[in-house]
Amino acid sequence: MSRMLNATQFRAEFPSLADSVHLASCSQAALSSRLAYALQEIGHSLRAEGAPWQTWMEQVGRARERFARLIGAEPGEVAVLSCASEAAFQAAASLDWARRPGIVTNDLEFPSIAHVWLAQRQRGAEVRVAADTGENVAAEAYEQVIDERVNLVSVPLHTYRNGARLPVEDVVRLAHDRGARVFVDAYQATGVVPIDVKRLGCDYLASGSLKYLLGLPGIAFLYVRGGMEQQREPELTGWFGRTQPFAFDPRLLDFPADARRFETGTPPIPSAYAANAGFDLIERVDLDAVHEHVSALVEELAQRLTEDGERVASPAGARGPQVAIIDPDPDKLAARLAERRIWTAPRGDLLRLSFHYYNDRSDVDAAVEAIRDCRRT
Ligand SMILES: Cc1ncc(COP(=O)(O)O)c(C=O)c1O
Predict the structure, then answer these.
(1) Which keywords does the record carry (predicted)?
(2) Cα of 247 from ligand 1 centre, angstroms
(3) What is the number of structural domains in the chain?
(4) Does pLDDT of 172 surpass 90?
(5) Per-position DSSP letters for 193-213, written without gaps between them
(6) Are 217 and 274 contacting, i.e. CB atoms less than 8 angstroms apart?
(7) Is residue 156 in contact with ligand 1, taking CB distance under 6 Å?
(8) What is the pLDDT of residue 3?
(9) Residue 1 has what pLDDT?
(10) Distances from the Cα of 122 to the Cαs of 98, 101, 118, 182, in angstroms?
(11) In the beta sheet, which residues pair with residue 93?
C-alpha cells in the first residue's frame, strides 16, 4: 500500500489549488492529478482493447469494494447506480406501501431524495414531514411522526443546506423500535466524516462520488443492509441486475442474493474510473485526522465570519464540513468570489463554503478577506 498522506501532502495532489481556493467540495471536489490521469486511462482502455468490458467491469467492481470498505460494509451490500435519486427509488420500490404506507422525511433533505418519496404517493405511500428548526431536525421531531404505519424513515447524515449533523443514531433507534426501516443520505459526509454503517444501524445508505469522495458526477452507491432488505423485488432493473449479467437470456428475470439486485443497465463506467481515482486518495488518509482538520477550519471560519457580522446558518455544536452564511443574493456573492477564483456553492438563500483535507488556513483567510471586501463595495 502507498504511504499515508498528511494534509500538506494531500494538498499537493491537487495542483489546481495553486491558483484557486476551492471551498465548493459540498458541490464538486477540486480536480486532483489522479482524476485527470484516470480520465486519460478510459481513453487508453479504448485504444488498447477496443471494447474493454472486462477492464471496465473491474473498475466498477473496485469502486463497489472500496465504497463498501469506506463505510464498513461488505461488497455484496452495495449496489452501483448512477445517482442518489436512483438509490432512493430502489430503496422505496423495495418496500410495500400496502403493508405500511408511511414515509418520514424532512425539509433539510436534498430535494431530489424528497421528491422520490413524494412520487411514491401514487403507489399508495403517505409522506410525513419531521419539523425542522430551520437549521437542524431534533430527534423529538422524528419521534412525533414515527408510528406503526411508517415503513421508511429518511434522514440525511449531514444536510446539504448548512452541513449540520442530524441525530441519525436516535432516529434509527426510534424507527427500529416502531418497526420502520431507515434510509440515510450520506452524500454530504462520505470522504470527510468517518462512517460505520454497522454502528449507525441504518438499513439503506446512499452516497456518490463527485463531492467529498473526489470523483465526478454519474455514479452513486446504495448500501442495503444484508444486501437484500426488501418486501418486493425491484421493478427498475436491467441486465446488471441479473445473477449472470452476461448470460443474455431475455426470458430469465432472476435476482442475485445480494445488493447487485438493485442495479439496472450498463454501469456508469467513466464515473467509476473517476470514483477509483478519488478512492486512491481517500484510502491514503486517516479519516479521523481529516475530520479533525476539516472541523478546525470550519470552526475558525464560522467564528471569523460571525465576528465580521455575517449570519452563520451552520449550527454550533452540530457543524459538518461546511459553513453556510445567509445572504440576500448568494449567486451574486458566489460570482464575485469566483472573479477571485474562490469557488463556493450558493443554494437558496445561503452561500456554502466547504472544506476538505486539501484546504488550509490560507483558504480561511482568503474567504474572510474576500467576503469582507465584497460587503464594502
Ligand atoms: C445530500 C445530497 N443528496 C443527494 C445529492 C444528489 O442527488 P442526485 O445524485 O440524485 O443528483 C446531493 C447533491 O447533489 C446532496 O447534497
Answers:
(1) Aminotransferase, Transferase
(2) 33
(3) 2
(4) yes
(5) S---HHHHT-SEEEEESSSTT
(6) no
(7) yes
(8) 86
(9) 52
(10) 12, 11, 8, 21
(11) none
Q: What is the DSSP letter of 38?
A: H
Instruction: Give the end-to-end CA distance of the chain in Å, rounded to a whole number.
Output: 51
> Domain range spanning residue 179?
38-282
Same domain as 127, residue 273: yes
Are residues 60 and 111 located together in one domain of the fold?
A: yes
Q: Does residue 219's CB lie within 6 angstroms of at least one atom of ligand 1?
A: no
Three-class DSSP category at 252 = coil
Mutate to test the pocket of ligand 1, among 108, 113, 165 (most ligand atoms within 8 A of CB): 113
Ligand 1 atom at minimum distance from 159 CA: 1
CATH code of 98's domain: 3.40.640.10
- Specify whether 162 is located in the same domain as 17: no
One domain, residues 301 and 157? no
Indicate if ligand 1 lies below 6 Å from the C-beta of 81. no
- CB of 354 closer than 6 angstroms to any ligand 1 atom: no
CATH assignment of the domain containing 323:
3.90.1150.10
Residue 85: CB within 6 Å of ligand 1?
A: yes
3 state DSSP class of 35: helix
- Which of 112, 204, 207 best tests ligand 1's pocket when mutated (most atoms within 8 Å of CB)? 112
* Residue 230 scores a pLDDT above 90: no
Angle at 178 between CA 176 and CA 184, to 5 degrees: 40
Q: Are strands 181-185 and 150-156 parallel, antiparallel or unpaired?
A: parallel
Does 307 lie in the same domain as 206? no
CA of 24 to the centre of ligand 1 (A): 14
Closest CA to 178 of 148, 140, 203, 141: 148
> Does 103 reside within a domain?
yes
Q: Is 347 helix (H, G, I), strand (E, B) or coil?
A: strand
Task: Report pLDDT digits (tens) over 352-369.
Answer: 999 999 999 999 999 999
Does residue 1 sit within a domain?
A: no
